[in-house]
Amino acid sequence: MRFFKLCRLVLLGIIIVLGGLSCKPGTDEEEKPTYEMVRLSRFPISLDYLFRTSDPTSRNQILNGIRNGRPEASMLFLVPYPNYHHHDHFPATLKWYLYSGGHTAISLPLPSFLEVRDDSGKPIEVIDGIPCYNDVTATLHLSYYIRVMLGHCCLTQDLVNQYHMAGNIDVFGQQRQAVPIAADAVIGFTHSSSALDFIVKDDTNSNFDPQGEITDKQNCVNPYFYLSDAAQSQLRSYYQAQLDAMKQSGLYPESRLDRTYDINEAQSFYGTWFYKQGYLSLDADDHPYGWYSFDGCILNILSLNKTDRDTFWKNSNTGLAIAADVLGVFCDAFYPGSVPDYEVIGGRYMVRCDGDSREGIVRLDNFFANVRASPLYLKYQFVEGSASTVWDDQLNVDYFSSLAAARASFSAKKLTYIRMYERAD
Questions:
Q1: Percent of the chain at pLDDT above 70?
Q2: FRET pair for 340, CA 20 to 30 Å: which of 161, 179, 281, 380?
């Protein structure tokens, strides 16, 4: 009898253990599938169309514009990643702009799942006999982790309607409202005037401190690395004429196709800085697009060593080679909504006056999109944060109209920036 009771107790214990194991909630990491890199075997639009190979007149006109152009010029075939100096999209665009100049078909060489955004109230245009919603954002999931986002595209009306009628379906193990898209299926066309935003997001990538505010740029990656070797080679071949024109210009800090988001330098004022505190009086109206959407909200301070020197070698003011005392490029955020007492500075050459990478003074010489009057001097002071991370670092800045004034103490208009997303009203 004791034997049977003992067996029952042992069996009950096994059932309890197994039951506990089966009912134990898994962690997020356990539930996620194994990561696999996904690469596109070709570009999503025609490279011949993008680079105007069949229209020599238009092609040469654009190339001449690049040779004689400026870094903020829109007349490029492709604007490379991450584009720190697009002053309406700070801290950087973190995407490619594709200026096709007209309608050409969009498709991906892999099967995907489509989500539609920004279609409400958009006009319908008939392109190649196909009704399309104008200026829509399409998100195409390629795996559990990786997705392509295409902004300002003309998405077919049929697909938009299918999406709104769709229920939740299994999308690589997640339930989403989406529409399956076959490989090579045309989903729409490029816009006739707007650039096509080519964005790739990889959830295993983190551009900013994971403890900071997560934004739509957190997981952006350079699309170049998500093309196959053959597709990369083909793109480089088409891009070469643009690159050669940028080299002749000498005014393009960013031109490589294989750049990453790498502006921040530890123990240095070089980096992307987000407004923390100061004399600026902010309220909800100064955040029309969410966080950091006001003039002066973000500073990009790019070291000369981080620029592409074969395409960034000339001083736009003199036409001569960049002098040895130029440290890099400064640019502040420029948004339609402004705050009292802050005047946009624009893109500037940083010329060494005093100090080092932690504390000192630089003269901000005109480069592009300049608003604030010159001469202008930036006084800065780097403040080390936690020893375990650069993301707690702070930067004190102040602007003066003379070097003598900048050599005095910080004024009441000192502004403090931090290397993380943190809204401080």
A1: 87
A2: 380
